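Input record, target 12 of the design panel.
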């Protein structure tokens, strides 16, 4: 990736990390008008950055989060003592004569900070496989797929616009957003030879369609009572589950009011 593209991904990641905090902080300081203003500004900035990545840098299907978090355990470097052992050519493994099982040699046990439970071969294979997956180029998108990804990117802006036109209690913004999400997934479903990261992103988007059960006005009219009843029954009749379901029942109303939790 070029340096400008990396910077765009970094800013996009920063926006996704601070959007909920910005919404709640602005609502506390400037009220409801300030809250909706910051929501529109953040969604507009995210859409511009994503469209630049899609149309200018040909980034393909964009994942969330834009920058995959670093697995520090897998990327942990060898300590000096371990590097000396490697450079001296000492065997780090022992192969059983009868079982053919590969185990670590006791004489070359790595330091505690870099110790792991798998065999060195397994670790090297997993690291190389993960590095291969991360370095795979994005799948080129045709016109249909580019339109589908553009629909997915601009859907938050169209939803906010429909909220401003028809109001928060209207079914039209909810239906418009659902149609756009399903249309985008349908157009992308014909795309073949996706890499693992892109397939995971499409699965994530498909699972997120369940959020429409928790989004107003569907949640207010249909889902709320049934979900709370189910959580209450689980808390009352299933031992131990109440430690999770009771706080969840208290948290759901607050969670449901935060725009970026529901629609971000």
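The sequence produced for target 12 reads:
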């Amino acid at each position: 990736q070029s340096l400008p593209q990396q910077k765009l991904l970094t800013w996009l990641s920063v926006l996704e990390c601070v959007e909920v905090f910005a919404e709640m902080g602005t609502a506390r300081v400037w009220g409801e008008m300030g809250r909706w203003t910051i929501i529109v500004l953040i969604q507009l900035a995210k859409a511009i950055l994503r469209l630049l990545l899609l149309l200018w840098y040909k980034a393909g299907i964009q994942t969330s989060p834009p920058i995959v978090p670093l697995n520090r355990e897998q990327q942990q470097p060898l300590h000096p003592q371990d590097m000396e052992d490697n450079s001296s050519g000492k065997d780090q493994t022992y192969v059983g004569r009868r079982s053919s099982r590969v185990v670590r040699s006791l004489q070359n046990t790595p330091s505690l900070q870099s110790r792991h439970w798998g065999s060195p071969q397994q670790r090297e294979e997993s690291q190389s496989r993960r590095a291969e997956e991360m370095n795979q180029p994005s799948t080129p998108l045709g016109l249909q797929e580019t339109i589908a990804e553009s629909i997915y990117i601009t859907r938050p802006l169209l939803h906010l616009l429909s909220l401003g036109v028809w109001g928060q209690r209207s079914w039209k913004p909810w239906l418009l957003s659902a149609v756009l999400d399903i249309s985008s997934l349908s157009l992308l479903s014909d795309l073949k030879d996706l890499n693992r990261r892109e397939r995971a992103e499409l699965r994530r988007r498909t699972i997120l369609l369940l959020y429409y059960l928790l989004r107003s006005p569907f949640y207010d009219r249909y889902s709320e009572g049934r979900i709370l009843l189910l959580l209450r029954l689980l808390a009352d009749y299933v031992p131990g589950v109440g430690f999770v379901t009771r706080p969840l029942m208290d948290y759901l109303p607050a969670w449901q009011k935060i725009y970026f939790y529901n629609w971000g």
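The CA atoms of residues 15 and 54 lie 18 Å apart.
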